[in-house]
Write a structure and sequence with these properties.
The strands form 2 sheets. A 6-stranded mixed beta sheet has the order 6-7-8-3-9-10, with helices on both faces. It has a 4-stranded antiparallel beta sheet with strand order 2-1-4-5, covered by helices on one side. α3 crosses α4, α3 packs parallel to α5 and α4 packs across α5. The chain is α/β, with parallel strands linked by helices. Bound molecules: adenosine-5'-triphosphate. GO terms for molecular function: ATP binding; ATP hydrolysis activity.
Amino acid sequence: MLRTTGLTKTFGGLTAVDDVDFELAADELCSLIGPNGAGKTTFFNLLTGALEPTEGTIEFRGGAGSEGASADGAGAYRDVTAAAPHETASMGIHRSYQITNVFPTSSVFENVRIAAQAHGDDATTFWRNVSRYDEYEREARAILERVGLTEHADAPASSLSHGEKRQLEVGIALAGDPDVLLLDEPNAGVSSESVGDIIDLIEDVATDHAVLLVEHNMDIVMNVSDRVVVLNQGELIADGPPAAVRGDETVQRAYLGGYESRSRHAEGDASADDGEPPDGDREPADGDGAATDGDDEAATDADDEATTDGDDGSETAEGSA
Ligand SMILES: Nc1ncnc2c1ncn2[C@@H]1O[C@H](COP(=O)(O)OP(=O)(O)OP(=O)(O)O)[C@@H](O)[C@H]1O
């Protein structure tokens, strides 16, 4: 459904994503893992068009109803290498943000309803079209039910807990009617009591979307993924079923050293501890150990602001690189 060939992104002398060949199937929940600074966020930003590749191609093949859809319901592959974020979103590639990305003073319902309206094809005539309004409203209510936020529909988004905000972000992404969902650490900053809800939500959206998940919690990754790909210093060093990747010597050396899987069901909850590889193994190749901590703090700090800084920051830095 979504594939990259020789995808490469350099920032000055640094190769953040290095010649990556990758393909995500329509029915897959694939996790993208790797140490801090491995290139995961850069890879996401390339897929959504927030960053332009230095080399390589990105191709996308939408689902039923997409442009050029064939008898089997899938569209033809299109080159989306140079597509801008609004173009990839309108084609069906959506992401949830590592940094909270909601309108805090609007209600939970309004956040989803506005996203559904923005995706609608007659947004400019919206206020004159009452039946269309009803449709968006119904869609938003159904999405809130799906992400488990119905009881908070009328509350301002700012009143949600951090975990509920992550659920809302997934709801906002679903309102764009995506084929592919890119989930960037949906578990970051979420309290241990809410981790189970987030896992259930990831598994649920994966029943009818292709999902690419960036997640540091290995218990979650090993429990929910159909497939795991590993980036290290921008290179794809492993790609396969969770058990095979966990046992891969190169991956153990680069990232997972010392990690042993705990079954979510045996433990009762994947959040029994942080489920992350030992700290030493999460250090980035360039020694910049602040990245993950910074992300988690940013997510918390951003609670009261509607922002898309996660991507924009990358663009800004790129511009100066
Ligand atoms: N806009 C940018 N300008 C310059 N360098 C960048 C930029 N974005 C990322 N990098 C560098 O590219 C490398 C990959 O970063 P990236 O954020 O993609 O890694 P990551 O795997 O997502 O890390 P983390 O797990 O910490 O989020 C890092 O060395 C980072 O410092």
